[in-house]
Amino acid sequence: MLASSDYTRSKRSSQFNYSIGTGRLGLALQEEYMNHLREVQTRIGFQYIRGHGLFHDDIGIYQEVETEGRTEVFYNFTYIDRIFDSFLAIGLKPFLELGFMPEKLKSSEETVFYWKGNITPPKTPKKWAQLVEATLVHFIERYGFDEVVTWPIEVWNEPNLTNFWKDADQAAYFELYKLTAMTVKAIDARLQVGGPAICGGSDHWVDDFLTFCKKENVPVDFFSRHAYTSKPPVKTADYYYQALEPPKDMLDQFTSVRKQIDAQGFKHLPFYITEFNTSYSPINPVHDTLVNASYLASILVNASDSVDGFSYWTFSDVFEEAGIPKSLFHGGFGMLALHGIKKPTYHLYEFFSQLGDSELYRDDSLYLTERIDGTLVALAWNYSDEKGDVDERLIEFALANQSKAVFVQKERLTESDGNPWRTWQQLGRPRFPSQDQIERIKKTMMPKVETMQLAPGSVSVTHKLAKNEVCLITCLPVDDETSSYRDLDDSKITSY
Amino acid sequence: MLASSDYTRSKRSSQFNYSIGTGRLGLALQEEYMNHLREVQTRIGFQYIRGHGLFHDDIGIYQEVETEGRTEVFYNFTYIDRIFDSFLAIGLKPFLELGFMPEKLKSSEETVFYWKGNITPPKTPKKWAQLVEATLVHFIERYGFDEVVTWPIEVWNEPNLTNFWKDADQAAYFELYKLTAMTVKAIDARLQVGGPAICGGSDHWVDDFLTFCKKENVPVDFFSRHAYTSKPPVKTADYYYQALEPPKDMLDQFTSVRKQIDAQGFKHLPFYITEFNTSYSPINPVHDTLVNASYLASILVNASDSVDGFSYWTFSDVFEEAGIPKSLFHGGFGMLALHGIKKPTYHLYEFFSQLGDSELYRDDSLYLTERIDGTLVALAWNYSDEKGDVDERLIEFALANQSKAVFVQKERLTESDGNPWRTWQQLGRPRFPSQDQIERIKKTMMPKVETMQLAPGSVSVTHKLAKNEVCLITCLPVDDETSSYRDLDDSKITSY
Amino acid sequence: MLASSDYTRSKRSSQFNYSIGTGRLGLALQEEYMNHLREVQTRIGFQYIRGHGLFHDDIGIYQEVETEGRTEVFYNFTYIDRIFDSFLAIGLKPFLELGFMPEKLKSSEETVFYWKGNITPPKTPKKWAQLVEATLVHFIERYGFDEVVTWPIEVWNEPNLTNFWKDADQAAYFELYKLTAMTVKAIDARLQVGGPAICGGSDHWVDDFLTFCKKENVPVDFFSRHAYTSKPPVKTADYYYQALEPPKDMLDQFTSVRKQIDAQGFKHLPFYITEFNTSYSPINPVHDTLVNASYLASILVNASDSVDGFSYWTFSDVFEEAGIPKSLFHGGFGMLALHGIKKPTYHLYEFFSQLGDSELYRDDSLYLTERIDGTLVALAWNYSDEKGDVDERLIEFALANQSKAVFVQKERLTESDGNPWRTWQQLGRPRFPSQDQIERIKKTMMPKVETMQLAPGSVSVTHKLAKNEVCLITCLPVDDETSSYRDLDDSKITSY
Amino acid sequence: MLASSDYTRSKRSSQFNYSIGTGRLGLALQEEYMNHLREVQTRIGFQYIRGHGLFHDDIGIYQEVETEGRTEVFYNFTYIDRIFDSFLAIGLKPFLELGFMPEKLKSSEETVFYWKGNITPPKTPKKWAQLVEATLVHFIERYGFDEVVTWPIEVWNEPNLTNFWKDADQAAYFELYKLTAMTVKAIDARLQVGGPAICGGSDHWVDDFLTFCKKENVPVDFFSRHAYTSKPPVKTADYYYQALEPPKDMLDQFTSVRKQIDAQGFKHLPFYITEFNTSYSPINPVHDTLVNASYLASILVNASDSVDGFSYWTFSDVFEEAGIPKSLFHGGFGMLALHGIKKPTYHLYEFFSQLGDSELYRDDSLYLTERIDGTLVALAWNYSDEKGDVDERLIEFALANQSKAVFVQKERLTESDGNPWRTWQQLGRPRFPSQDQIERIKKTMMPKVETMQLAPGSVSVTHKLAKNEVCLITCLPVDDETSSYRDLDDSKITSY
């Protein structure tokens, strides 16, 4: 058993809710998207939201219009204003990702995703710079400089991949970065610009990018990278199936990149993981399952030493990168499935939002925290990638010398609780569920809650974790008022 | 095991939601009261609402004002309009109970309840009749005759008790009834008037009242009576403790009264139970417990043959008959405790609202119904008034020759699920709980939901009921779409 | 002055709110769209909603997927279910318009609108028929046959125009209509199918279409046509400017088409105007102005003899046919501008929803109606297409022998009241207005309300209509309670 | 004309929204009350709320219960917690007024108001002190010390009147004050206690009270007084009618009391007007009229030099001091009449909330302020207590050297605009208005809004104020985007 002498109090860092990822920003015009975002924001609460497509043509900022045979540029802010108004109204700030290329500025035809984001460099770099400038100046006029200066500005997305940047041409990206960063700083030197938003597997870009910035004297205010942990996929008609690397693998990547940054002389540069998840595929069923939550518990608990902010990819299955969802559950990234159904990973985040301000202890299946009022809040999980049954994992920890009784509340995610994916399977995997089916699924989407009261004294809490269970355990000192009820005797109630 | 050959299909009667009881109508001005009522109405849905105090001075319809030394009557409908507007806006009609006596019309000082409803006959019967007339005429003007003609008008409350009617003077009540009924019918003969709203234990009033009506040619459109099942109380400083008669006792009373009514030649007179519950005391902890729900399951399932409409007393602990609630849980009648916390009896009613339109089978622990779409919905309960542990009760019933798989959903109320009273005890019975405590209690107020899929074929459902468990079991034929997913193979998901 | 002897009571027909037009259905996923629709539905209330794009790829019903080298068709109802769920939840039924052509079924490349609706016949007619069948069968499964049988099914949109149907090929349309109608009726003969949804200017199609149906024995359950009244445009970079034909011109078209239908032997065929407005251009500023409302007043009052249902094109400026709106006001069709700002035409419709059930009188600037409770409700308007000032138009009508005083309420739309377009001009025509500007504009979007009390007796109401004013005048008999206030003397109040 | 050289910029003080008065706190349990309060708080925004009845028996904090023949005190916080929870949830802090006397602590029978607040000293001072202590300690436990320390604690209400304090016994009040203040400070010396909450007409109490505090070394953290301006009433059956002293009279009282406080050596003591209005009677029709707003405009503009915070008595006609309201309009204090109808005084406050942070100029009918963004906001009013017509009052002020055009928006309250009382009269003064009548009245409750654009240059604004008109004039520099619309030509629109 873990004794209280094993605890070391330190301030808990809380990068888990730094930012939340979203499908392309144009989807934020949708009602279901906003309903999901309000739910997530109310119960969890993020600082930033980051997604692709700021300059995509469905938002349509960049327009060219013909006047008397002359082409004029027109910047249309109708939709982006509506979107950012709605984010700010619920306390979310944009984490700006500049991209992809507007149709009229593209240099060639390559696109990414079902929704065809153009991934090529600007045909006319000057027009790109003017677009960036006009857009930022508009935001400053509309929302005020004091607001916009708090929005990180990230240049492009995963330029190290040919899917996202034509030929993954590093020199071309550095050129774009330099032009963009200079344009941003010309507006106001206090605006924060960064990159290179690379995905894992090309970490020589860390050195390359920072070397470039130093050499060319290009401003950089933060370093961003993505992280997914899935092995090569088995692709079927409807799904990607992938095994996962162990959590340690992803944690090691964070440490390693942080060291690279430091070694380049950028010790004070914030390091943001602007996308992460288990699999990078929006049609991998793992996202709908319990194992997704138990895997990510390890990451979020243990990565805080090297990472300054996470952005989980993504809050909602209102998402179209692989096309319009073909079914209620379809392997989407969302914390929330369609119809606002909460997946286990949603609850993992909600559990994190309940943790205390101090950290007492952590290992690979337990995280003990304490609130200012003395409430102990523990997160326990039992990640396993084995097939079939595994042994329950016993956790046990002490509450030192309690003079009061303790109310213990366990919120449990298991295969049978807080797992709407399983209920959907039992209902025959309805692609387009009826209202009745949706309600039945929702009745099973919440964690199972178990409560008890432990007598005063040197109290310990025990819990057996099922395979991949994620459990939040809250231990609350009880101010017992029972004695204030005169002549109380429950045994006089029928059947008690 | 119950075989499908044991089923006999008949139309299910649904008197359970005929009406809902409420503390005095003046409380309907309150926001928490209305929040509770909207919740109940949204999830369960009643036709009528009935409570005391229409003529009490907190609503203040009857006023006397002095003008130049002369006393004039003034009818003030400011509050009752606000109240009835708010009821009708959520689809609830008033079941009018005429009483108690306004201060200015009382003939002596006797009152009932903390809120001091005056229980005496009118000092000036003519002024009472004018008050009744003015009030009904006002309702007709405001809401239309077509609406008001659907509101039953009940004369007084429990005149057979000295608490509620001075000296329980039967002759005086009959006089009041006659005057009132005549006044009502003089407005329009189609308005529905009835009584005598007696409680149990004085059923000679049935014959007396109907004989009186026949003899005196007094109109009567319905007969109303109350029913509580508790034995004499042990009174302590804060609570009443009472044992309960067996459910059969209450059911027999219904049958017996119905027979009395019929025997008097009133076979077509509707018979309403305008109040019922286990205990008649608003400070009996039984109302907060699971046993209250399991007891009433028997009543609501089996009383439908003799009763035309029930009015559960009451929907909410926003209630003041024994004073302002001294604690979150205090033995109040409410389906909903303060802060909108759902008690087991709330869920019992919500379960009833999910039942099908056809009845297939019933006994003393099982009620099988079927919806038009073929869904079988079973209510099972295991009432026991024994102290300590009792054996689980096994129920088992067939679903005949299913060609499809069956989705089974169990919604269980047990000591540890859907029982916020127990969580409150574990938290040390906080009288005035904090927001944090309220949220923790609410996390445990919902039934435990268990789901499974049964393979096609001759399917049977089995369930073991814990002591006093109430369980709703829904059996839904599954339209399985699994085969429409190409190359589906869950075993390719990590850990599955 | 109009005397009451001039009135002839008849039942008022109310085709004005038969249906409401909308931009393409895919926009219904958006939150601002739904907010506008809820506003319109709450205050006006339509039966149906009709728009383009049911089969457009943004909703994406028709999909082809590759499985092991074989192409399979997959129907994706994720988005259309969400859309129709949201319509039905607010009491709106779909008026189905079948079109345009899914990308994978197109026979060539021609498209219409910024959003590129493909206007070509199906490459494989059988696959079109299967798409229609699968879609309708899905709707029946989801919403029930009793619901879907009330949805008119219209085949395509404006096939008489080359913009909307390749080459405006009549034979090809008739072929599509026949195939579609036969497919619909094969599902259930009670489903209602119709067409040809032509616009004005090609009324030989009326005879051609009905002759075709008779000759080929093709089912037709209703006839649909559109109506716009604008003359050829002056096109500028941002706008279309057009003069309007007189209202009589449009009214004559309705009569004429009705006669054609009748002459073809289809006297009982309902005749729906499934689109109408002044101008057919979504960038014509007339839609933002007062004159749009005064023009349409004439149409809606006087067309009821020949038309069975109107569908105003459209309820909202959330609309993309000419691209993303470039400015708050931009000449869009919407009753509501962006940000929910109410234009004069919105109020015209809201006025219509207040009219009485009986018609008493109508001419070209006055429409007198009466409610069941005796309230007289008059709509008055003063349409003028002249530039510059015009004389006020005096209207005057009698209220016969009022025994009571009359409360008169005038709701006036003039250049300075209920005209947010003018305020926006005064604010400098901000393209992307700030919250502060939006609020200031909204403060001026409501009609000016003037009230007075007329003494009992033979009362007449007088009103001077400003140029293009639209005014609703409500005349309410007063039940005067003033005498019930004892010693009332307003002159004792300071300054009165 | 007022030239810009006449302006002197200073920081505007904003005591107008320091606090808002309310009927007894027990009414805060009501839904209509809370709806009104949310409206007021959303559109105006107050810091504190102050009302009577914290210790009244409808909230019922002080209870005595019998246990085995012994009387025990029980403090019941069920209702006050609900009330304060609901205030704090909308950003309102309690301004605690300690009173009146609980039934069980009263020393004799005297009461005030329809709701019978007992006005006598405590029978047992120690029990009073214990009640105060228990209540404050409970608030600190529930809401935290940091919160409660910001709540002023005022001892009793108007002890200088026999209506409110038995015999207006000054010595008895000082004794109560001392006991209470000592009790408060014994909990924590940082808690703020004050008094004596006197009404006008007894200002010798200022010296008496402060002298007492000094002499007896009794803590006092603020001085509170009330102010009403009405002359002796003409009382009729339903109303009080009263003439008003000129505004200067009330303003002089403030200055005079401030001087008294300073002269006693309490220069740094905050001086709060914890109640004020024109008339002190809740049945004086003046409160429903325009003159109430124009009178108070003078007070709120000009009193800021001597007063540190105002509490307008009261925000809502949900109020029972003179009984249940007998009619929609009845002379109640409320900014909002029943059904949420906005009176002119509501708008006056809403106008104040729009004023700028800097003051430029003030006189007896004009108040010029400027916002940080350069918007000039003027409040103009034309108070007159004369009967009959008075001349319009011309106001005219300069906007210095505007390089831009100016958008001017006037929000006008006149006899015919923003005056629902008049509409109600025209409707026959319905006591219990129907929904239809309420909606018609609401259509006339908003100010008339007039807008215009003034060309750039040295701009001046002119306005003619009708009798008792209150007008807010906002002057906004225009960023004109008109030239960005290509080929714009409104004259091409039909009829323009």
Automatic annotation (TrEMBL), chains A, B, C, D:
Every Glycosyl hydrolases family 39 N-terminal catalytic domain range: 11-452
Key words, A-Z: Glycosidase, Hydrolase
Residue positions of the active site: E158
Annotated organism of origin: Streptohalobacillus salinus
Family classification: Belongs to the glycosyl hydrolase 39 family.
Protein name per Swiss-Prot or TrEMBL: Xylan 1,4-beta-xylosidase
Gene3D superfamilies: Glycosidases (3.20.20.80), Glycosyl hydrolase domain, family 39 (2.60.40.1500)
Gene Ontology biological process terms in this record: carbohydrate metabolic process
PANTHER family: ALPHA-L-IDURONIDASE (PTHR12631), BETA-XYLOSIDASE-LIKE PROTEIN-RELATED (PTHR12631:SF10)
Gene Ontology MF term list: hydrolase activity, hydrolyzing O-glycosyl compounds
Region forming the signal peptide: none
InterPro entries assigned to the protein according to its UniProt record, in alphabetical order: GH (IPR017853), GH39_cat (IPR049166), Glyco_hydro_39 (IPR000514), Glycosyl_Hydrolase_39 (IPR051923)
SUPFAM superfamilies: (Trans)glycosidases, Glycosyl hydrolase domain
